[in-house]
Amino acid sequence: MTTATIISGSRNLPPAALDRQIERAAAAMLASGVKPGDAVALLLRNDFAFFSASLAARWIGAFAMPINWHATPDEIGYILDDSGAKLLIAHDDLAAPLAGQLAGRTLVAVPTPPEITAAYGLAPSTPLAEATTWDAWLPDDSTPAPPRGPGGASSLIYTSGTTGKPKGVRRRPFQPEHLAAQAEVAVAGYGLDPSQPLRVLMTGPMYHSAPNAYGLVSTDMAERIVLEPRFDAEELLALVQEHRITHMHMVPTMFVRLLKLPPEVRAKYDISSLKFVVHGAAPCPMEIKRQMIDWWGPVIHEYYGSTETGLVTGHGSAEALAKPGTVGRALPGVTMRAIGEDGKDVEPGAIGDIYVHSRSVPDFSYHGRDDEKSEIERAGFVTVGDIGWIDEDGFLFLCDRRRDMIISGGVNIYPAEVEAALLTIGGVRDCAVFGIPDAEFGEAVCAYVEPDDEASLDAAGIRTRLADTLSRYKIPKVVEFAASLPREDSGKIFKRRLREAYWGQSGRAI
């Protein structure tokens, strides 16, 4: 049984009502032909239906499959086809672009709630003619709960597809030993200790694997889950104060935007209730982290992980200050290795490919691509392409993704390092660094900068400032400015879209 009341805008869903909605949705899925092991596609923003549909799929032994709702209709169609999902549950406005493309599938349309409509400036929407409405799809409230299906099914989440078509990470069923280990990881990595009062604020979209796991596990541990319809820095502070929030999952871009608030705005809100604020998904520049710790106190924590591996490392504020740049030490049940080009473990402090084994998550395969799993596996350990080193105390430091690494004139350049330096320059709100074709060196460094509204920046000035902290070969050859970088709702930048303009005619995969 769930424990959390979910709140969104002026609406709330108490635990008993959530439990009943899960049971009704599970019965509706079975009636729609969903079987254990099938995928149930979710094209939903953070809303009550996201929670009830996800947990209903788990109830009957199916896989909830959240889809990034920033994807194009063609990208969504690919995921639906690749997964074989025959049921799609979608908000009205997100389903509208798919009109006429869902033959052979059941479409259940969830009304887009008013707080989401207002946050995104959406026009009022109505269900597609081919859709069944959510309320009509759910059976009568007197319908008994269906029997539980084979236990242990989790979410089927498609990776971002940075280097090609996205791949679905499909796990084997969870066993009791996995669940016990996950409880340890939830406490160590997320701070979700059920013995303590938990009030959670969800700030990022649950189509991402970490917010997905964070939000769903909170339904069984927290007393309250508050959904922020769309991230807004000042609204976040207001919600923390109003609901006495104790726990949040965030990404570094959110920190940057919070720190841009004027001092008088920051001082308006009481955030003393915060106990454990965890961030991940992207590198956090040390200066940003230090400023957040100075402001919020030693409640800032960080984790590292991936869809494939689950949570790998974690650390708190004191360790972050003592070991600047680390992403933490291995969490309970996790073993890490840094492996060199010769296939052997490198010495502490030496750079290698990071491989991970965790007993808190079952083994996985890429849906329909079993052969691709072997490409990233070595003796039971898997890598997602990250490069870094492990120091003598067991702390992991990441350089970058191997696929993002720029090789210019035979020299390795890590975009994350350049981005961290850019974010220390006054007037830089956000940035993205990547490699572009270069006739002489093979690749050159390109930086896209999103300036603050009042900032006066130019390429020459950016390069001059970077020369204070970076070697000459790391300084971007090309600096472009954009009022708004393409990004997901979490704040994560779509680098692929920026790269396409440079690599589209090169014949090289991006």
From TrEMBL:
AMP-binding enzyme C-terminal domain ranges (all copies): 417-492
Keyword DNA-binding applies: no
GO MF entry, a single one: medium-chain fatty acid-CoA ligase activity
EC number(s) given by UniProt: 6.2.1.26
Keywords from the UniProt entry: Ligase
Disordered: annotated span: 141-171
Xref: Gene3D superfamilies: 3.30.300.30, N-terminal domain of ligase-like
GO BP terms in the entry: fatty acid metabolic process
Segments forming domain AMP-dependent synthetase/ligase: 16-361
InterPro entries hit by this protein: AMP-bd_C (IPR025110), AMP-bd_C_sf (IPR045851), AMP-binding_CS (IPR020845), AMP-dep_synth/lig_dom (IPR000873), ANL_N_sf (IPR042099)
Family according to the record: Belongs to the ATP-dependent AMP-binding enzyme family.
PANTHER family: ACYL-COA SYNTHETASE (PTHR43201), MEDIUM-CHAIN ACYL-COA LIGASE ACSF2, MITOCHONDRIAL (PTHR43201:SF5)
Protein name: O-succinylbenzoate--CoA ligase
Organism: Sphingobium chlorophenolicum L-1
